[in-house]
Every structure is written in C-alpha cells, then in structure tokens.
Amino acid sequence: MDTLKESLAPKTFNKISHLAVLVWFVIGAIFLGIFTEVENTESRFDFRCGGAETENTDLVRGDCFQQYEEQYNKYGVPIYGFVTINFFLIALVCAIFSQIVRKTVDELSPSTRNGDRESQSRHREKQKSTGKQLFIAYCCQLSTRLVLGVLFMILQTQLLYPLRFPYKFDCYLTSGTNQPRNLSDAAQNSTQFHKCNNQRAEKKTFWMYAVLAVNGIYVAGILIETIYILSRARVETKFMKNSEFLKIHLNPNHDKSYQEPQKQEGRIQVVVMQPRVHDNLPTQPGLHPEPQRQDDVAQSQPREREHRPIQVEIHVHPQKQDDVIPPHPREQEHRPTKMESYQEPQRQNDVVPLPPRDQIGSHQEPQQPEGRSEHDIISPVQREPEQLQNSNLQLFIAETKKIIKENTQHLFELQPPFLGNPGEQTAVKYFTLDQIYTNLVVVPNRATYDFTANREEQLKVYPRPRTESQLKSLEDLLNDKSKKVLIVGRPGIGKTFCCTKLLRNWACKEVSEIHFDPAFLIKFRRFNSDNHLSLRELLVQSEHFPSDHLDDEVWKYILQHPESVLILFDGFDEFNHNANIIQWPASSPKSIEQKVPLQSLYYWLVTGKLLKNALILTTTRPTALSSIKRLPFDKTCEILGFTTEQIKEYVSRFCGDDKQAGERLWRHISSNMNLLSLCYIPVNSFIMCSSLFEILQFESSASATLPSELTTLYMIAVTVFYLKHTKEFRDNESTREHLDYNNLPPEVEEKFEKLGKVAFEGIKKGKLILGGNEVRGMEDSALFHRLPDCRSDALKREPQFCFIHLTMQEFFAARHLANNVSETELRNFVTKNSENGKWQLVIQFLAGLMNDKDELPSEIITDLLPVETEEEERYDDDEQTGNEEEWKVTCWPTKDKRDLAVTLCKCVNESKKMEIIVQRKLQQINFNCVNFIASHLTAVECSSLINVIKNIEQISHLDLMDNNMDSLGCLEIAKLLIYWKCRLSWLNLAENQLTDEAVKHLANAITNNNCQLRSLNLSENNITDTGAQHLAEAITNNNCQLRSLNLSENNITDTGAQHLAEAITNNKCQLHTLSLSFNYITVTGAQHLAEAITDSCQLRSLNLSKNNITDTGAQYLADAITKNNFQLRTLNLSQNNITDTGVQHLAHAITSNNCQLHTLNLSYNNITDTGAQHLADAITNNDCQLHTLDLLGNNITDTGAQHLADAITNNNCQLRSLNLSYNNMTKVGKRSGSLSFILTANEIVKY
Question: Does the keyword Electron transport apply (predicted)?
Fold first, then answer.
C-alpha cells in the first residue's frame, strides 16, 4: 500500500480523481479474485448434458465443454487475464503520469518554499510563466485512459467474449469421433444431440456485466472531466498555465495559506506589533509628527518597503452590526482608544508599508498573546489600517455607511411603473434592493454574438447559460491585480444596480470580500457642466456623502492610503464631455488641490497620477468605449444580464410570499420563448413582472388569465424601457398617462419612426448586426446595443450595433409596416412572407398594431386561414370487447399547413376583430378533428389555438401529441373542456412533458358536468403516483364520462396502481379501457388491480405490458379471471418477467367457465416449450373463449410450436390469431409435419 501511495502522489490529482484511481485499484483486485476463482474451478463437471449413456458421461461432458469453450471463447483468452490487463494497464498510465509531473507539482506547491523567500518567489513566478506542461500531461493521461477504457469495452463485447454466457447449450457430436459438426448435418444418423447446462454461466455473465459497467462509468467520468477542462481552457487561456491549473483543478487548496480567513461579524480590535526597524526611523509612540504638505503627497513614493515590515494582528469580538454606534465627538476626546499608543498619520514617505501577503500569511507567524487562539489572527488582507486610530475617520465611515443603507433601501429605479393616485387601491409592489436584487452574468472582456440563421437559436443567444468563465464574486472583479476595472453593459442591464449593491454590501457588512475603507459613488450625469473642481471637491459631491465638507484627517488618510479607497464612476456614456478624454494631454497634476475639469481628474485617477493604487471601477454603455480606449484598465468585463435560471429567481423574488402568483408568472414567461428571451435584460424582467402582476391582482389570482397578446406587453415594455433609459426622459417622473403607447411625445414618435425603418430593412436584408452608417444619428438610442468593433482590415475598425433584443427589432419592423405601407402592399407582403420564419413574429405584431388602424382591414391577416382538410385514421378501444377499433376523421389543418395555421392563430389572438372573422370561417369548413401533432406548440400558442376553436361545436377530436404543453397549456385545455359550447370527446396529449400539476387541471375539468370527454391519452409524459391519484378521484365522480384512459410510459408505481384499482371498483366509474404499460408496476400493483377487476368493475381492457410483473403477479391475475364477476375481455402482459409457471396459472384460468377473456398477449416474456404446452392444452378446452394469443419473442422451439399446432386443429379451439414470431423455431421444424401444414394453410398463425 505504501508503494501504491508513493506511485500515485495525491497532489498530482484532484481529490475526486485520486479517490477514483484508488477505487479502480480496489475494484480491479476484487474482480481478479472473482474471475480467478471462476476460471480455475469451472470444468467439464460443471456441465450437465442429457442423452449420454452412463459410461460415456464424462466423455460427452468433456467434448461438449470443449465445444462450449471454442464457441464462446474462441481466442482462448482467460477472463482473469483480460481483467488483469484491463485494470493494470490503466492504473499504470495513472502511475506514470503521477511520477512525471510530481516534480513540477512540488516546485509549484507552497510547502517547498523554504529558505530564501525572494529567490524562491522568483522561481515560482518563473514556473508560472514557463508553459503548460502540467495541463498537457494531464490531458494526455486522460485521453490515454479514455482510449484504453473504450478499447477494453469493445474487446469484451465485440471480439473476445459474448454479451451473455448461455446457461443452455445444444451440443452436436458425431458418433465415433466425438467431434462437433455443423447444424446442417444434425439431421444425419451419425449425429448425436445433447442438451447441456453450464452451471456457472449466470455467474460469469453477471460479473462480466459488472466489468463492463465499471468500464462504462469510468469512461463516462473521464469524458466529462475531459470536456470540462478543454472547454474551460478554450474560454480561459490562463487556466492552462501550470500554477493556475494546479490551483484551480488539481489542488484548489494548495495555496490555502494565502486565503482569507473565515468572515466573522463583530467589532475589530487592531494591535500593531513593530519588529525591529532601522535606527534612523522614529519609533516613539507618543510623538505626533508634522503632517506632510499636500503638494508633496502626489509626488511621494514609499521607500525601503523590503526592510520595514509590520505585523498586524486583528482580534474579533462578536457584536451585532446594529450595535456599532459612532461616538459623539466630545465623548471621543475622553474615551480611551483601543491602541496602546496613538500616532498621527505619517508623511507618505514615512508610511511603513506592509510586506507581501505571502510573507505575513505563510512564514511570519506572529507570536500569539496568551489566551488567544490562532483563529483570532486574521490576515492583513482584511485589516483596517489605522482608521481605528483615527476617531474622525471612524466617524466618517460610520456616517457614510448609515447614509448608504438609508438611501439604497428604496431606490427610485424600483418604483412601480403603474402608480395610482393616492388613496386608491393599487396592486403595485414596492421593493427594497435586497429583496429584488438578483446576481447577473458578468464575463471577462467583451462578449460576442453569433447570430445563426435559425430564429429559435437567435433568441437563445441573449440569455447566456452559466459558464465557467463567468466572474463569481467581488474577488474576481476587484483584487490586488485589478485596481482599474471597466464594466460594460447595454441599457437596462444592471450596471448602476451593480455599483449600488456593491456599496450597500460594504455598508451592511463588517467584513467584506474585498476590503476598502472610504467608498465613493460618482455619477457622471451630475457633472455635465464645464466647472473645474479639485479631487477633494469631487469626492464631497459624490452620492451618499455624509456632509458638505471632507474632514482633514479623513483627507490625509485617503492620500496616505489610496490602496484602501474605492471610487465608483457610474455612467461614463452619460457624460457630455467624454470625447474630450481622448484629446486630453497626458500631463500630471501640479498639486493635489489643483482644480481641473472632471475628465482630467478621471484621467489622472485611472492612470494612477492621482491616488495611485486606488480601486477605480467605471461603468459605461458600449457606445462610449471609443472615448476611453486608450485608458490603461487592468480588466474589462461585460454584464450580459440574466440566465434563464436567474430570470426564474427574479420572478420568485418579485412575487415574494405570493408563491401562487410567482409560479403563474414564471410559467407564463417561460412558456413563451420571445418573452423569456427578452427578460434577460433585468429592467425588462421588472417591466414584465410589474405588468403581469398587476393583471393578476386586478382580477382574482386563481382565475385570472394572463394576456397572451404579445403586442400589448411589448407596447408597455418598449415605452417604459425607452422613456426610463433615454437621456431626455429618464429623470422625469412617469405617470400612467406618460406610459401610454398611443400618446407618445412627438419627438419620441419621430425617433420610433426612424427605428422602425432601420429594423425593417435589417430583417429584410437578413442583418441582425448593423453598421455605423445604418444607425447614424441614433447611436445613443437606448434600444441599440453597441457590439465590439469589426475589423475590415488590419488598421481599420468599423462600429457594429444590434437591437437590444431580436423581438424589439421585430416589433419596430411591424410598426413600420403598420404606419407606412399601403393596404395593397401590406396584403402582398403578408401573403408572400406568412410562412417565412423570420417574418412570422413581425406579422403577429402587425396584427396587434392593426387594431387601431381603421384604414387597414382585418382580412389582410384572416385571408391566410388554410381551408384544406384531410382524412386520417384514429384508433380507440371498443367499449364492449376492449379491442382497438379504427375509424376515420376529417382533420384540420393539413400537415403542410400546420405552421401557417399556428401563425394565424397567434395573429388572431392579438385582435378580437380577427378572432370573430376566423371563427366564422372555420364553422363553414367540414371537419371534426383539430390536428396539431408535432407542431412545437407551447402553452401560449395553445392558448391562442383554444381561443380560436372554442366556439366551433363540430370539433369532437383534438390531437396535440408531441408538443410542449406543460401545466400551463393543460390549464388552457381544461378551460376548453368545461366551456359550454365544447363537444370534445377525444383528446390526445401524449408526449407533452406533462407533470402531476398538469394532470390536476385535467382531472378537475373531467368532473365538470359540461365536459363530454370519453377518451384521454396521457402516455409518454412525466406523471407519477400523485397524478394517478388525481385521475383516480376524478373517474369516480358522477359527472365523469371517461371510458378510455391511457397512462402508458409514465412514472407510475404500485401506489398509483392502487389508487386506480380503488377507483375502478367504484360503481360510479365508467372506465372500460385502462393502459398502464411501460411503468414501474410490480407484483403488488398487479395484486391491487387483480382484486379490483373482480369487484363489480366495468373494465374490459387492461394493459400492463412492460412492467415488472412476475409469476406471482400472473397468479393474482389468473385467480381474478376465474371469478364470476370478471368481465375483462383483453389482457396484455407482454414484456414482463413471466415464465412457464405464470403461464401455467393463466392457462388454467382461461379454461374456467367464468373466464370471458378473448385476447391474451404474453409476448417477450420467458416462456419455453413447457409454457406453450400448457397453453395448447388450455385452448382445446371447450370452456376457453380465447380468440387472440400473442407469444411473440419468447423461447419456444419446434416442440412447443408443434403442441400449439396440434391444439389449433382441435374442434374445441376458438383461436383466430396466433403470433409465434421471433421464437427459437428452426427452419427444419417449420417444414416438418402438421406444423408445416398449419403454417401454410392457416393465416391465423404468424411466425
């Protein structure tokens, strides 16, 4: 074991991989022992061969065993040898890799850095930058192990061994030579046939499956890890560097000594312990040196950093945040400080700097005072340097935090867009920042957009999925290496909220992820005059500043400790003079009090000429990037908004305790890809939630119907978004009247007209990315997003733009058509493009906008209605016999017109006038079945369809198989079922991903006295026992008229079967056909159903195929068949685990005079000739009424088939159909005797 540990160094693998390799060794050893025992003890004596004479038994066994080995191990490779090579070779690859990279890992690990710190630090930095050997070696060993794993799986299953070692073996030996012959010679007189059994076959098969499963799991794990590290390396190049790969992937805790200690709330006490310093340094604790002149501060640099270390020890005492109260200035003079001595801040040249972080954290462990544990000592990364010595600074920070907490509690931006008059009841919600704030997706550098030709894929471009390249915390955004950070984001994406939330987190938490002392938020929009001001004046005018002046002691601290200062510049694009920054000369400030324009101060701060090492964070829209492209930012990030998961979280936060409303809002948004994709912009999520929530509260939350009219929602969204994110209007207080889309200010109307033309031309030319010439004069519009510039050649860059969302472009294109195109041109456009995917949403918006256009007749859209129908076959079980019957229905629309019909339904849903016209036209078409199979319908589209067809009384069949209905779609269908004009009797909702919640809506509907549904197909969904319970309760209701229920291919277990069994025994239940195939029903469930069908049950057909029913379950059902109350005509038990024993029970049952069974399906079970003989005897009984018997896919040979053939010729046999396909009948057997006669003379037998 020690050798194994030495060969596989844990540090060369991550914890999971190292554990997996060790487990691999253990499993390999276990398998080796098992197969060695199986191979060494298996012999010819494990064979049992019939037909041999006593004196030849051993000879026959030996020859048959040899024949068995040659057939199933033709290369003669012992299994234990294969297993040894399999596990040893892969483990050897791991050991070789571990030894190769071990030295590199040791050099990068902190535990090896003893001795001279500076030289080893340089050595470590060299290792970090020398290459990617560690990453490459790790990928090579992964790929090698992956290839070997797949290779061994292929060898095992395709070349060396069979998938199963058969228990039964037919052995043919020639007399005299005892050598096996071909099957074609078996009929000759010199051939001896022996039926043999291998006693160890099942054990070998089981363990070979185990080897295959282990190899499969192992290969899958390696494949997942390979994809993960390659994808991360693709988006994050530094991940491949030796040190990064070791730190992030192999051993995330290898540099644990540098990590910040656990955060604790409480009051922080600082004790500074000065080690030896040079003799020429002043060290008297009581002196107050004269402050440095301000003019000198900007030029001063710290000196002798390497020779003047300070150790900082911080002791944390638990205390609630609310208990921290800044002391009164007068009381402060008499209050003893927490420092043993107080020292006025030194001049900047004399400030004693901290040593590097690793010197404090790793090797310079300060001596612990007696009674203090090591957990009381916190790394200097979280220190609060000197501010606790300074009462004015402490008071300033406390006052600043207090004001920030008060000012950011309720933000103007979170004010509801639909405010009513005072005193009126309103449904609006007021939020705090903490309640509603949801984390955003922030990625390094600028994000690119790959717009494909497929519109659905285009929509998925906006809500980006979570990736490993995203920034996960403030440590990724602000750190020692990233002092100057630029955050880019389109309008409404959450840039200001990010800054505000960062400040609020600092104000509310005693210990932050990134430590800074004073923090200032400066909004560029407040400084659009040409006034000159100093840095000190700028800070005083920042947001949330506690007074009208900056205290001298605080100012000194800022100048002497710039690394502890955070300045947030929000909205650079809103600064009128941003273009001047490029033209500003690269001069230095003459003094710290010099008054200059804001662009100069900003330039000096970012370049480090003022407050060097201060944390400077800037936010801007992409349109202003050209003005700051020369500034030396350490890091540029882009906010991409919400992922789908974050949209869901936002909706949940918005609705708060009203869980029901939250679920309904999320279902409504998520069911419409257009809305869901639009909500990736946080402000759009706010607008949509505010609008929909108000609708829910205006009506009752239980019965309110959320609008499926997309045009209405986009009118609100476009108006609110534009007015709140455009310079001219954003500071104005908006009322309901201001947000009326039909009464926009003239200047807004003019700009919307320009946007409409650009949007229409872009879609017409297939351009989602627009050039600078195409948007000239509108570059600053809130509805545009500036993309990274496009390089036309090596030296030239072209600006690129796109609408903030594809649906916004489509809305404005529709607006252009409605306002600027004549009736004739519009009719031609609609007719030509109605089936073109890129124009379908434009036409839908157009239908909604035409509501207010009297000059545009609705027939422009409604004339698109397809009138073609087609006849199709439908199947249902006969109520009396339980057998499937076929009939024809007339379907609308035809298969080639379904997409057009869906588009039309969505258009009609936007206009009540169009809805009336289309319904009148549909009533004139002769059809009775609405067929939208595999039409990609979502819940919202289903709602549009229901609104169109609900008044068409001739519709009796609705086929919505293979769509995306979900629970919200089922809610709309449930409303149709209980509508008084609805005559629907047949409904197919198979393959719709329905859950128990969806079933609950349907169950409630079929108990309504208006519902006339008789057949319901819910197969291939996600229904569990809970959904089965809902349906069981429904079919016992007096109003329920359901006769046929299909629940095949769901997740129903014995519990669900019990609920349904109890229901069908109720005399109110009218169910005649029940299908529960492809579920998880076992013997217990079969017992419940068997008891039910003997108790006044009206069931005629029961399908239990593809479950886990064994002989015991078959016995329960057989007992039920013999009862005098039994009325079942069809029983399907195919694809279960029934053997000859279970068949014997069933065979005995069908001879009972109480049995009325006409159809019995036992296909794909484990029935042999013995079971066939039992059934043959049964069907010759004059009490047997069986007409159809299906034995397809069993283990019946010529002998069993002969028994059945003989039975068919019996006068008492009433069988009309027998299926023996896919059994073990030979061609010789099929051609022999009466069986051959039956197969050729009777069409009832299939083989």
Answer: no
The closest alpha carbon to 1060, from 1038, 1039, 1041, 1081, belongs to 1081
**Angstrom distance (rounded) from CA 813 to CA 820:** 11
* Cβ 625 vs Cβ 610: under 8 Å: no
Q: Confirm if 482 and 663 have CB atoms less than 8 A apart.
A: no
pLDDT band at 1239 (very low <50, low <70, confident <90, very high): very low
1105 vs 1160: CA distance, rounded Å: 11
Helix (H) or strand (E) holding 44: none
Give 694's DSSP letter: H
Across residues 204-225, what is the average pLDDT? 85
DSSP assignments along 700-753, one per residue: -TTT------HHHHHHHHHHHHHHHSSTTTTTSPP-TTTT-GGG--HHHHHHHH
Q: Which CATH architecture has domain 1-105+131-174+192-249?
A: Up-down Bundle (1.20)
Q: Which residue has the higher pLDDT, 668 or 270?
A: 668
pLDDT band at 1238 (very low <50, low <70, confident <90, very high): low
| Domain boundary assignment for the chain | 1-105+131-174+192-249, 439-641, 709-820
Averaged confidence pLDDT in the chain: 75
Question: CA separation (Å) from 691 to 420, 427, 652, 838, 1125?
Answer: 14, 10, 15, 27, 59
How do residues 56-71 score in pLDDT, each as one tens digit?
666 777 777 777 777 7
The structure tokens listed for 771 are 């050039």
CA distances for 814 relative to 711, 751, 778, angstroms: 10, 15, 19
DSSP state of 362: I
- The model's pTM is 0.56
The three-state (H, E, C) secondary structure of 799-852, written as one string: EEEEECCHHHHHHHHHHHHHHHCCHHHHHHHHHHHCCCHHHHHHHHHHHHHHHH
Q: Give the per-residue pLDDT at 784.
A: 78
pLDDT for the residue 1023: 96
Which class would CATH give 439-641?
A: alpha beta
Q: Are 969 and 996 in contact (CB under 8 A)?
A: no
Largest Cα separation within the chain, whole Å, is: 125
pLDDT digits (tens, 9 = 90+) for 1071-1083: 999 999 999 999 9
CA distance 590 to 596: 11
Residue 292 per-residue DSSP state: P
- Is the pLDDT assigned to residue 346 strictly greater than 60? no
User: What's residue 1195's pLDDT?
Assistant: 94
Average pLDDT rounded to a whole number, residues 328-333: 37
> In the numeric block, which tokens belong to residue 218?
């192992």
